[in-house]
Automatic annotation (TrEMBL):
It comes from the Eukaryota. The chain crosses the membrane at residues 24-45. Keywords: Hydrolase, Membrane, Metal-binding, Transmembrane, Transmembrane helix. Residues 118-201 form the Peptidase M28 domain. The keyword Transmembrane helix applies. One of its GO terms (molecular function) is hydrolase activity, acting on carbon-nitrogen (but not peptide) bonds, in linear amidines. It comes from Lithospermum erythrorhizon. This is Peptidase M28 domain-containing protein.
């Protein structure tokens, strides 16, 4: 659930009076304008259905200018001097969570932080009980990380929702859309990966809560230092019922050389690498 986009759900029916969640995906794809050469631009612009001058300006303002500014702003939120480092529940991670939460609210989303430190922003649209489209990525980083690894997926989705908000479309979505900024994907602090998304998927072993970092602080203890209480019961409550989820999209920077080598601006992946960490005692 955490590293890259694995699957774009197919949209079934479309009615003119409401905005389909597909608009979110087309807006997200517009976001790639940041990275693509200018000659590709007309193709993408014409593939979105509601273009006029004013909307175009708003697209550039929110999806390009502001989003890029935010990537650089978040890239400065670091526990280290001179390079980017944000590990699970570190001071910089907490600051980043607050910044992200404020951006979600600015986009018109209802926000909360769950007991594993994941930051959520949701809008219900027309049918609050429909299955939700989840969009997300991770807010933690590796040591000496790049700007885009994680934040790209968070910021692009917030920008997409903000555009829907500013064009009055956010309340007309046919299903809820929820952005989740996961608290841990990289596993740098505890040598465990996916603390945030594994909790939401319901696959995080309870024993992980007692794993210690190199200073002897447990996962539970790190959360408690930031006033988040987690135990077996509250961990179970974090699990999302698969029946309540329609699909999950993640925009992620490519971590290999393929797109760059082939000159392609964007790709849809068919599968992603799984990560496992094993400790072997000899
Ligand atoms: C858009 O977001 C703002 C917060 O920035 C909120 O006050 C407003 O109600 C939202 N508009 C819609 C249509 O949801």
């Amino acid at each position: 659930m955490a590293s890259s986009c694995s699957y774009l759900p197919k949209h079934s029916s479309f009615q003119n009076h409401s905005i389909s969640t597909n608009n979110v995906t087309s807006i997200l794809s517009f976001f790639f304008l940041i990275f693509i050469p200018i000659h590709v631009l007309p193709v993408i612009v014409s593939s979105t259905s509601y273009q006029d001058g004013a909307t175009n300006d708003l697209f550039f303002e929110l999806l390009k200018k502001e989003a890029v500014e935010r990537l650089y702003e978040l890239g400065k939120v670091s526990d280290a001097h001179g390079y980017l480092e944000r590990t699970f529940q570190s001071p910089a991670s907490v600051t980043a969570s607050k910044v992200i939460g404020a951006w979600m609210e600015d986009a018109g989303l209802r926000t909360w932080v769950d007991n594993m430190g994941n930051v959520h922003g949701r809008c219900d649209g027309l049918n609050p009980s429909e299955k939700a489209l989840l969009i997300g990525s991770h807010l933690d980083t590796v040591i000496d990380a790049g700007l885009f690894d994680g934040p790209l997926g968070i910021i692009s989705s917030i920008s997409a929702m903000k555009l829907l908000n500013r064009t009055d479309r956010i309340t007309k979505l046919r299903r809820p859309v929820e952005i989740i900024a996961f608290s841990d994907e990289e596993g740098v602090r505890f040598q465990t990966t996916f603390l945030g998304s594994a909790a939401i998927a319901g696959v995080l072993p309870v024993s992980t809560l007692d794993v210690h970092d190199k200073n002897g602080v447990s996962v539970k203890g790190a959360l408690r230092q930031n006033s988040l209480e987690i135990d077996e019961e509250s961990l179970l409550l974090l699990k999302y019922d698969p029946e309540s989820v329609w699909g999950y999209i993640e925009v992620h920077i490519e971590q290999g050389p393929v797109l760059e080598a082939t000159g392609l601006p964007v790709g849809l992946v068919e599968g992603i690498a799984g990560q496992a960490r094993l400790k072997v005692t000899m």
